[in-house]
Amino acid sequence: MTPRLDMIGLVVSDMAASLAFYRRLGLDVPADADGQPHVEAALPGGLRIAWDTEAVVRSFDPSWSRPEGGGRQELAFLCDSPAEVDALYAELTQAGYRGHLEPWDAFWGQRYAVVLDPDGCGVSLFAPTQAAA
């Protein structure tokens, strides 16, 4: 048997704040999940994403401590167009989320921007700058 990637896990300090952020990015997370210590959501293609509170992680790994700094992992969300990258970045930053890199046209052919989730993890927003031929 070959292992396959099945789930992406995030450790969060405030479940409700984190879920509110990811709902704005289109993830289907039940409204009643905000108070839960562990939450999972199905992603297209069968992959799952999960959130665990810091307390849950410490319950099975007492030596765990919150990482210092950032940039260790990042999620990236494909948008329908360069204009959607700009609009979503503006929506998120106007809602109080921290922008990290304002939208720009990257040399690799994408409109790209980065915002930070409530725990300071980078979340990329991107779209091809030209439609596929």
Folded structure, characterized:
By secondary structure, the chain is an alpha/beta fold. The protein is built from three helices and seven strands. The strands form two sheets. A four-stranded mixed beta sheet has the order 4-7-6-5, covered by helices on one side. A three-stranded mixed beta sheet has the order 1-3-2.
How are the SSEs ordered, and which strands pair?
Layout: E1 7-12, H1 15-24, E2 38-42, E3 48-53, H2 54-60, E4 74-78, H3 82-94, E5 99-105, E6 110-116, E7 122-128
Parallel strand pairs: 1-3, 4-7
Antiparallel strand pairs: 2-3, 5-6, 6-7
| End-to-end gap | 38 Å
Q: Which regions are unreliable across 5 or more consecutive residues at pLDDT < 50?
A: none
**Helicity range of the residues?**
10-25%
Number of helices: 3
Largest sheet: 4 strands, mixed
Q: List the helices and strands in order.
A: EHEEHEHEEE
Rg over CA atoms:
16 Å
Which range does the strand content fall in?
25-35%
Number of distinct beta strands: 7
Q: Report the principal-axis shape.
A: globular
Q: Main sheet: which strands, in order across? A: 4-7-6-5
Mean pLDDT level: 91
Which structural class fits the helix and strand makeup?
A: alpha/beta
